[in-house]
């Protein structure tokens, strides 16, 4: 079981909060698609004989790809990799790209799951974030997607925005759920260095929401999603039963994945590698048959820490049997010793040999994760 991630590194304009790698040089798109197709060929053995069960187009903005470009990429994947009969194929899209014509063509491709970046249903917030679309466009894009036959739709929302309050957040959540979506990813705004928002914050042009407001909005999110029959299966992810993201689930379960495109990461249980975050250089390297990545070998300590950080964020938590099988008995004791203070304070529940964050614990996930990390390798 394996996944393929495809990074489409183009954005028509940069959003003020975002530090995902992308360029606004859209003129590079045709040569980039050729390079991507070549990279898939150069990496065709990376997943060995593992069947590809999920494919994820992320960005940047995959919805800048034309039908023909997308089909070139699909043909290459289906020719070179062993893809399962019914793969989950997710496509991140910006609402303003999702016109009726575009969606009709998209429906003719193998894409079967849309992840639409709505962020907010307030025009003033969208403007503040430098989004390209307005609230009406977002709503239309979702409805058009449904009319075109997409039945697995996720949307992204951001909360904890400057100037946001719980009432506005509740409006955003109601708007989302009223649109009959299957999945919601809701992220608290983070101020990433080098973004416009980060500079605004440093120069006192915007004010961060206070901690209590963040907590209130998170609790509103959890309660509202539950009322709507959504399962809170990962800190930032909520899905109707049967609609959890299989691609992300496989990341959390330490399954292999190949990432292609600038800045994309790959993982094969033994090492992790990441492509250069520069589209022009990426193209030049690939044209010369060179794969432009750096890599690191994963020792037991890194593998354990990776497992902690990913598993603890999910509703299945840390599986102590998995820790015993994949590491050793001493690691289980180490993990339990460090978790003890959080079990006592009910931030973590120990259930059937799984350490699972409680709602209270989710508010301090980063602290708990860092306390469970192994910082030296004396255990191995
Ligand atoms: C890399 S973006 C790609 C999606 C697509 N390009 C779009 O904007 O609709 C994936 C999601 O990450 C979230 N995101 C990016 N930067 C963030 C930040 N600094 N804080 C919170 N969420 C962020 C947004 O919700 C965004 O939709
Ligand atoms: S949020 Fe999406 S559209 Fe905006 S800059 Fe990031 S990747 Fe591009």
The side-by-side strand order for the widest beta sheet comes to 7-8-6-5-4-3-2-1-9
* Fraction in helix: 40-55%
The largest sheet, given as strand count, sense and whether it forms a barrel, is: 9 strands, mixed
- Give the overall silhouette: globular
How are the elements arranged and paired?
Elements: E1 2-8, H1 29-42, E2 52-59, H2 67-80, E3 83-93, H3 100-107, E4 113-119, H4 123-128, H5 135-147, E5 153-159, H6 166-178, E6 183-188, H7 196-202, H8 211-227, E7 231-234, E8 237-239, H9 246-252, E9 256-260, E10 265-267, E11 271-275, H10 279-287, E12 293-297, H11 300-311, E13 318-319, H12 320-326, H13 329-344, E14 348-351, E15 354-357, H14 359-362, H15 365-372
Parallel strand pairs: 1-2, 1-9, 2-3, 3-4, 4-5, 5-6
Antiparallel strand pairs: 6-8, 7-8, 10-11, 11-12, 13-15, 14-15
The structure holds S-adenosylmethionine and iron/sulfur cluster.
S-adenosylmethionine binds next to strand 4 and strand 5.
